[in-house]
Amino acid sequence: MKSLWFFDDVNLFNLLCPHKFKAYKAVHDFDAYRKKDYIYFEEDSANKVYLIEKGKVKIGYYNEDGDEVVKAILSRGELFGETAILGENKREEFAQSIDNATSICPVGVDTMHELMRNNKTFSLKIYKVIGFRLRKLERRLQLLLFKDARTRLVEFLDELCSDYGYDCDKTGDKVIQHPYTQKDIASLIGTSRPTLNILLNELKEENIIEFNRKEIRICKKIA
User: Fold this and answer.
1) In terms of pLDDT, which residue wins out, 112 or 38?
2) For residues 27 and 100, which has the higher predicted lDDT (pLDDT)?
3) Could you report the per-residue pLDDT of 16-60, keeping only the tens digit for each?
């Protein structure tokens, strides 16, 4: 299956942003956010959908103990807040900018519904995105609840390989060029950055991976 965050390798911002539709081009704008700014909080009214023009956004919630649980880290071209399309009235999560120059295109739910009514292909793509997103979130939360940190990392690397990996013809290795920092990855698999470093270095010492800031090379199947 292709990436659950992307859809047929299409940048969703380019596909869905209202400025691509003549009737809406003049009446929509972009919002700018700095690092740690919130786009919305839990319990806020769910009346918009958001597309990322640039930057990165963290989606998460706080559990009963007050600990932050990160559901996703999204980047340029991706959609969030999409459950408002399905009738969600209040947010069940927060969305926070984690870049210093994040640009967001907010789209009112009424506008999105009108676009979907007027274009069946557009509507189908929206529902596919929502379905893929929910399936991936369910899988990630199951990992957080039932798997140890190494298993969560291995599963995440497998996910990255599906989303961003390609075969290196010369060696047969899988090369993953991804947008995440180590802090992002630690948040997504529910561990600390020091623990992530230990796990990555263990895999490196076992000659399973090589890694740097923007690339992970999988040298053999991870067990």
Assistant:
1) 38
2) 100
3) 665 555 555 555 678 999 999 999 999 999 999 998 888 999 999
Give the list of residues 6+ apart from residue 191 with CB closer than 8 angstroms, or none.
Answer: 149, 152, 153, 199
Among 51-55, 131-135, 171-175, which is the least confidently predicted range?
171-175
What does 112-136 look like in DSSP terms, one character per residue?
HHHHHHH-HHHHHHHHHHHHHHHHH
Q: Which two tokens stand for residue 105?
A: 């295109």
Cα–Cα distances in angstroms (integers) from residue 136 to residues 52, 105, 119, 162, in the given order: 19, 24, 26, 13
pTM for this prediction: 0.72
Residues 6+ apart with CB under 8 A from 30: 53, 103, 104, 105
Please report, as a single letter, which amino acid is at residue 74.
Answer: L
Which pair of tokens denotes residue 60? Answer: 């998460």
Question: So what's the pLDDT on residue 158?
Answer: 86
